[in-house]
Amino acid sequence: MNANRNFLTAVLLFTVFGVGTSIAADNSSLLNKGFFGSPAQAKPDTTIKLSKATGSIYVDHFATARFENDKGETFVWRFDSAMEMSNFPLNIIAPRGFDAGKTRAIVIHPNGHFN
Questions:
Q1: Strands 74-78 and 64-68
Q2: Quick one: which of 30, 55, 74, 102 has the fewest CB in 10 Å?
Q3: For residues 66, 25, 3 and 84, what is the CA-based torsion angle, rounded to 10 degrees?
Q4: How far is residue 20's CA from residue 112's CA, in Å, rounded to a whole number?
Q5: CATH of 2-114 given 2.60.40.10, 3.30.70.1230, 2.102.10.10, 2.60.40.2280
Q6: Does residue 109 surpass a pLDDT of 90?
């Protein structure tokens, strides 16, 4: 019961305050549970090139995107995320060592998800 309460507390904090480094202690648990989506092997729907100046990127829910930074590093991600996790720093999902800068991922959910 205590583990569920801690998990729900983390989800509530992420929902209210957004995911940030100050409350990012449990990101790995949320990442492992698929709250941010999942790594993908499938052909991406789009390729998004990141630079140091990239502030936010917008992706559709269930889209698969290939990310490429200005160092040539890449990864592919499927945004099958929970609705509560629709605005978060890209570095949370990026592989270790991938330079995502301060880019935020904003997942656009269809109107039907809000009902």
A1: antiparallel
A2: 55
A3: -50
A4: 27
A5: 2.60.40.2280
A6: no
